[in-house]
Write a structure and sequence with these properties.
The chain has about 525 residues and is mainly beta. It is built from 8 helices and 33 strands. About 25% of the residues have low confidence.
């Protein structure tokens, strides 16, 4: 059974807990009899190699079927039916659980479908006092959680008409360093910045206007010779709701000093780099220019947004908010040569900025991207050039990459969903990735991971499905080509797969680290001992 689940990595309809974005239920049958949606055998797996024949007929068929399944509602397949209650063991202690469905019921709040409430991404605020949740129902929920009383409340719900649709998910969230704004991505192509306390979107961009996936079939074919392979034609095999549509699935923001970018249509602009990845295989780089002040009230924010629409002029504080800009810089994508692998040909699930290159005064900014095609690419965020490609295994989840910037040299880890491994790569001087080895779980602890998180210099969190669990494993300094991990603790017997992780507050006195894991509509709060 485990072997069959590992082989059935192409479609979320086959793996019983697969983390995939599927179309409406009317278009896709997810019943127990739907396992024949895609037939994939061991022989097929041996033939599937993105690095050698990325554009073979078999790959084209896989892409076609995957795009046909792409839609806007998250599907996690059939949940498990554990016979035992959820438990934590080893060095992990389960301190609290919060179920979003129960919170909604207690608030007597109407949602589109309580049965389809899934948390796609969870992030602690910079002060670790609030939690932002990307919901499959389209909202960004801001949760306040009292660690002492274990009381949880929904403090803010962020939603507007752009993303309030029957089949729109919020796929990822990212707190700004000021703790007052949240960036969010959506399956209808929108990227939004929310001002939390006022519940207003202060920035909004629809990435369909900036990606290669927009426009007519003829225009897309002219710009990208791979259009027939990457973007299927408009025919009956593709649901009308997803024809030529980009779903924005992940984002990351660069740390370090701001960058200055030359612009052809104006003076140089200075700001922070932001990158997003989507279902069309394109990574889009943005320049975020922030105002110096962030103290405007909700009324001033609304006044700033209405500037130029015949309303009263904004106040000085509102004018500062209105000066916030998100400028499109470059698209990072496959350049069209069918003999080379210089970009993604399938969905991009995660993006992460590399540690700043101090030798270039912070001006050379690189980032990693990983997706369904089993590759990690290194990109120049300012030019859009692909600098390197490394085989990483199939990934599925917007937290499948993590970077340890504190080690020397820095380390990149990748959760290989297909093989159940933690891939380890070293970020060498000069900006090159070197493959180090694989950290595997023993067969009785096998997992198909969706997400990973580094914890200190010698441990890592790996979470996913088969079984639905979270594992705290060792991360040795001298990883060999293939090494079995030592499991220090587990959260197990979960009814659904773990789809998101984050690190909470660190109690330096008692040497305790708070962990957060999301599974379906439930948040699990855990503690673990850490080194002093």
């Amino acid at each position: 059974i485990l072997l069959l689940n590992r082989l059935m990595f192409v479609s979320g309809l086959q793996a019983p807990d697969h983390f995939a974005y599927s179309s409406n239920a009317a278009n896709v049958d997810v019943s127990d009899d739907s396992d024949s949606a895609l037939s994939y055998t061991a022989a097929d797996e041996e033939d599937f190699d993105c690095s050698d024949t990325p554009f073979s007929k078999r790959t084209s068929d896989i892409i076609k079927n995957q795009n046909a399944l792409l839609g806007s509602r998250a599907s996690f397949g059939r949940p498990g039916t554990p016979s035992r209650p959820v438990e934590a063991n080893g060095v992990l202690t389960l301190t609290a659980t919060v179920d979003l469905k129960s919170l909604y019921r207690s608030m007597k709040r109407a949602v589109r479908s309580v049965t389809d409430v899934h948390i796609l991404c969870c992030r602690y605020s910079p002060d670790k006092e609030s939690i932002a949740l990307a919901m499959s129902t389209g909202e960004v929920e801001v949760l306040s959680f009292d660690r002492r009383t274990k009381d949880a409340q929904i403090a803010y719900t962020l939603l507007d008409k752009d993303v309030n649709g029957e089949s729109i998910n919020c796929t990822s969230v990212y707190w700004m360093p000021n703790g007052k704004n949240i960036l969010a991505t959506y399956t209808n192509g929108f990227v939004k910045m929310w001002h939390v306390s006022s519940k207003k979107a202060v920035l909004s961009r629809n990435e369909e206007h900036f990606t290669l996936a927009s426009g007519t079939d003829e225009a897309r074919a002219d710009r990208l010779p791979l259009a027939d392979h990457v973007f299927p034609k408009r025919d009956s095999d593709v649901p009308p709701s997803h024809q030529a549509r980009r779903q924005t699935l992940c984002l990351d923001m660069a740390g370090g000093p701001p960058v200055t970018v030359d612009r052809a249509d104006g003076p140089p602009a200075t700001g922070t780099l932001l990158v997003t990845g989507g279902s069309d295989g394109v990574c889009i780089v943005w320049l975020l220019q922030e105002p110096h002040s962030d103290s405007a009230t909700a009324d001033e924010l609304e006044s700033a947004q209405n500037t130029g629409r015949g309303t009263k002029p904004p106040t000085r504080a509102a004018a500062k908010h209105s000066s916030r800009q998100l400028t499109h810089l470059v698209n990072c994508h496959h350049k069209g040569n069918k003999s080379t692998m210089d970009g993604h040909v399938m969905k991009v699930f995660d993006v992460k900025f590399a540690p700043a290159d101090e030798g270039q005064s912070g001006q050379r900014r690189l980032f990693f991207s990983s997706g369904w095609d089993g590759m990690v690419f290194v990109w120049d965020a300012l030019t859009g050039s692909c600098l390197q490609s490394v085989q990483s295994g199939i990934v599925c989840g917007n937290q499948c990459l993590d970077v340890d910037s504190g080690s020397s040299p820095p380390v990149l880890v990748c959760a290989d969903h297909h093989q159940g491994l933690l891939k380890v790569m070293r970020w060498e001087d000069g900006g090159r990735l070197t493959e180090v080895g694989d950290i595997a779980l023993s067969q009785d602890r096998f997992t198909m991971p969706y997400c990973c998180k580094l914890l200190g210099p010698d441990k890592a969190l790996l979470a996913g499905s088969n079984p639905h669990a979270l594992r705290l494993i060792s991360r040795p300094f001298d990883v060999q080509s293939y090494q079995e991990a030592h499991v220090h603790g587990s959260l197990q017997h979960l009814p659904n797969a773990v789809t998101s992780l984050d690190l909470g507050s660190l109690d330096k006195v008692h040497r305790k680290q708070t962990l957060l894991a999301a599974s379906a509509s439930t948040l699990f709060f855990l503690d673990t001992q850490v080194r002093s």
